[in-house]
Design brief:
The chain is an alpha+beta fold. It has one domain: Thrombin, subunit H, CATH 2.40.10.220. It has 4 helices and 8 strands, in the order αββββββββααα. It has helices spanning 17-20, 126-130, 135-139, 148-167, and strands spanning 24-25, 36-50, 53-56, 61-68, 72-77, 86-93, 97-111, 117-123. Strand 2 and strand 3 form a beta hairpin. 17% of the residues are buried.
Length: 168
């Protein structure tokens, strides 16, 4: 079938950025960051701090990302998590990017009404943990902790180095 410009519509490239995006992009609705609507699995460790001592809960939890932004993400999980702690997440963004050890501060935990829980995370930096405990406590954790922005920066740097090597 030909479109209005005489091009084959079956082979026509997407005309808008949204059509080329691998994720659905949500409106900002007055929020600081645009949200990407996606469905992607996440594994996490629960981390709490009591009187300057960090406690990493045994075992990993699993969840699914409902949306993601530069500032945080919304998860749905079958298990309740403490509302005053942190999650250390490992996420796979639709097979495109894998991020491990990303620190997120739990901002809200609510029952979804379907037997599971909605968990709102705000991406955090190691300095937020240092306000609650010592850097020595953080280094002793068996899981590496990093920020979302740091992980994204690492991925972009790696991509640039790879592109430069291929160009040579």
């Amino acid at each position: 079938m030909l479109d209005s410009k005489g091009a084959d519509s079956k082979t026509k490239s997407p005309s808008s950025p949204a059509e080329r995006m691998p994720f659905a992009v949500g409106t900002s609705d007055g929020r600081k960051y645009v949200r990407l609507e996606l469905s992607s699995p996440v594994e996490f460790h629960v981390l709490t701090c009591d009187k300057g001592k960090l406690k990493l809960f045994r075992g990993k939890g699993s969840a699914e990302i409902l949306n993601l932004s530069q500032g945080g993400m919304l998860l749905v999980t079958e298990s309740a998590v403490p509302s005053d702690g942190f999650l250390i997440v490992s996420l796979n963004l639709n097979g495109l990017v894998v991020l491990d050890g990303v620190l997120g501060k739990i901002k809200r935990v609510e029952p979804s009404g379907e037997g599971d829980f909605l968990v709102g995370l705000q991406f955090a930096v190691e300095e937020e943990l240092e306000k609650l405990t010592s850097s020595e406590e953080i280094r002793r954790l068996p899981v590496k902790v990093t920020s979302f922005k740091h992980k994204i920066s690492q991925i972009i740097s790696s991509y640039i180095r790879t592109a430069e090597a291929v160009a040579k």
